[in-house]
Structure formats: C-alpha cells, structure tokens
Write a structure and sequence with these properties.
The chain is an alpha+beta fold and 363 residues long. The chain is 26% helix and 26% strand. The chain folds into 2 domains: 273 residues, Sandwich (Jelly Rolls); 66 residues, no CATH class. It is built from 12 helices and 18 strands. The strands form 4 sheets. Strands 1-2-3-16-13-18-11-8-4 form a 9-stranded antiparallel beta sheet, sandwiched between helices. Strands 12-17-14-15 form a 4-stranded antiparallel beta sheet, with helices on one face. α4 packs across α11 and α11 packs antiparallel against α12. The chain binds 2-oxoglutaric acid and fe (ii) ion.
C-alpha cells in the first residue's frame, strides 16, 4: 500500500474504539505543568471504568453479588475463576500465583529465559547474548570485536585465506575503555532495560509472524509446562490436555505498551493462551473481533492469570499502560519477599517493570 491509501488506513486506525481506549490509558507526562522534565508528573488518568478482579474476588468471597456481566465458575479449582458474558472463552484467575511462585518466575524470566538458544529482541543486532543479567550486576559492557579467521588451503594450489568477522562479547568496563579500539559498545544495564521479549520452546519469528520450527530450541521447562497445564485445564475441551509448546516473555518498562493485536498463528484456537503477569500492575484491554468494538479495560496484577480460548482468541487485546509508582504498582509484598531472599538486583528491576509470560500450544 502506498502514500494516500496507507495514510488513510493509518488515520482510520487512529479513530477506532480500540485505539481511543489505548490513548485514554497510555502513559503521558502532564504538559500543563510548565515545570522542568525532572519534575514532570504523569497525566492523571480516569480509572473508574477499569474492572478490578481483585476487588470483585474479595466481594465474591464475602458472598456479595457480582457486577452485571461477570460470572464465577464453580469447579475443582482452588481459586475463583471469573468469566465475562460478553467475551466467551476469556477467563480471569486473580492471584493465581503465590508470592514464592511470582519470585521464581521473575528470576527465571531475567536469567534463564533470555539464554540462547532462546532468542530475544537483541538477537537481530548483537547475535546471541549469554548471561545478560549477571553482566548487568557485574557492570559489564558488550563490545564489538573484530576476529581474524584463517581458513587453510584444503587442496594443493589453494591459498590460505584470512577473513574478518565481527562479534559482540561482554568485557569489564575498564578493559573495554582501555582497549579504545573505536569499536561500538553498549552497557549490559542498557541492554537489560531494553529487553522487550524472549521466546521459549518453538521459536516465534516476528518478521514472518510465524513459528520457525527449523530454529534450534529447548523444550519449555517442565515446571512451566506443569503450571500452564494446570491453569489451562479450566478452558480446555473436556478430557483433553493442553500441550505447552512455545512461550513469549514480554518485558515492560514505564511507558512501554503492547498495541492491540490478535494471536492467530497457532493451529487450534480451542486451546487457550495461558498468560501470567508479574511485577508492576498493568491495564489490559480486551476488545472484540473488530477494532471498532469498545474494549473492556481491566487491571492485571502480579500473580494474575488470564486464559484466552475459543471465541476470545479472535478478540483484539493489548496492554496500554503499566504503573510503576509505588501506590499504583502494588508490588509491596513481592518486593519484601525478594529483599528477604537478598535479591536486590531483581528488586531494582521489578520496581519499574512488568513481565508477562504467555504459553501456547502451537499445533
Ligand atoms: O502482556 C500481556 O498481558 C499480554 C501479552 C500478549 O497479549 C501477547 O504477548 O500476545
Ligand atoms: Fe496477545
């Protein structure tokens, strides 16, 4: 699509009900205060229409009535599971993960999940990066190095050939500075802040928007498989078991958003996507089958699990906002637990971040 058509489509997109809701909740600085950038405050946001399943769950446990359009599932599950009349196939399990489980998955998301052969958004520029979190703690720098590779003559009469390749390697900050080879370098801490996704199990290729089964990959870790199967059971066709084959881990910092989208690259949409939230609170928008449908906004807190199966798989959804201020983030118990374990580096990260792990059956 070219010129006018493309810009018309763009401006139509800007006007959809989904887009309007994204703009309503997105993080903006308040321009009305003429103060310097340092003192700038977030623009106030009206949260009165955001569904709060934590509050709904508490009143449900006190045997109070549920708000209209919300139903609680009765079943063998030891947490209340809520559904929306207007979005069949969508399930919300508030507080499904204990604080210990949340801490465990935060640590995994920052240490083992971004390890090769799993890929991250940094692969395209730097190639595989090993031990990014440790490198951040050790204040390392990723430095571009030139390697001379010599290939020897395999047959008589062929010449020895020297080739140069470039690769990125972690270096101590001082030695990187000393070398001063004019090459490029980037702080590990900057790369950690800019980590946006990692993929586990079958690798998702974002450029083709499909799974590339030819890419090297490890199986989803057993403990994550077990958790996903247990959570998915509520939304599975009777008598069938969920097969976790791929997962996408999303990392959000202040101002980061996940635009409205569908996850439509999996073969069988009757299987749920199991999506768990860790760290700072967020707003999740669940739209309808068209971007013109007004989305339902809801809070996602650390430990909440959402399932999207069946018709809900056809619904646009996204994350327009995360809250990193102390009151809004709602991570005090999580912070205390991590501090108690002596994990200051994880606390530093999660204070201003949200992590989402979503697990899928691909075939
Ligand atoms: O971050 C979330 O809660 C949603 C993630 C999501 O929709 C996705 O990765 O496809
Ligand atoms: Fe999604």
């Amino acid at each position: 699509m070219y010129g006018e058509d493309a810009s018309r489509e763009q401006s139509e997109l800007e006007r959809t009900a989904f887009r309007k809701a994204e703009r309503k909740y997105k993080f903006y600085y308040d321009d009305s205060s003429k103060s310097s950038k340092k003192k700038k405050r977030p623009k106030p946001v009206d949260l009165t229409e955001v569904l709060d399943f934590k509050a709904i769950s508490s009143s449900f446990c006190r045997d109070e009535n549920l708000p209209p359009g919300i139903v609680a599932l009765s079943g063998g599950f030891h947490h209340p599971v809520f559904c929306l009349d207007s979005r069949p196939g969508f399930y919300f399990i508030p507080g499904a993960l204990s604080i210990e489980e949340q801490c465990h998955w935060i640590r995994e998301s920052l240490t083992s999940f971004p390890e090769p052969p799993n890929r991250t958004n940094h692969n395209a520029i730097y190639g595989p990066i090993h031990e990014l979190f440790d490198a951040t703690i050790e204040r390392k720098v990723l430095v571009e190095e030139e390697n001379a590779v010599t290939s020897f003559a395999s047959e008589p009469g062929c010449f020895e050939r020297k080739e140069s390749t470039r690769r990125w390697r972690f270096s101590e900050e001082n030695s990187a500075r000393l070398r001063g080879n004019g090459g490029k370098s980037v702080l590990a801490s900057v790369l950690l802040r800019k980590l946006r996704w990692s993929t586990l199990g079958l690798q998702f290729d974002w450029s083709k928007r499909n799974y590339d089964v030819s890419l090297p990959h490890n199986k989803i870790p057993d403990a994550l498989c077990e958790l996903a199967k247990q959570m998915a059971a509520t939304a599975m066709p009777t008598g069938e078991e969920f097969k976790p084959e791929a997962a996408i881990v999303n990392y959000f910092g202040l101002g980061d958003t996940l635009g409205g989208h569908l996850d439509d690259m999996e073969a069988d949409w009757s299987r749920p996507i199991v999506s768990m939230s860790l760290g700072c609170k967020a707003i999740f928008l669940l739209g309808g089958k068209s971007r013109e449908d007004v989305p339902v906004a809801m809070f996602l807190r650390s430990g909440d699990i959402v399932l999207m199966a069946g018709e809900a798989r056809e619904c646009f959804h996204g994350v327009p906002r995360i809250f990193t201020d102390k009151e809004g983030a709602e991570i005090d118990p999580l912070e205390s637990h991590l501090l108690h374990e002596g994990n200051n580096h994880f606390v530093d990260y999660i204070r201003s971040s949200r992590i989402n792990i979503n697990i899928r059956q691909v075939f």
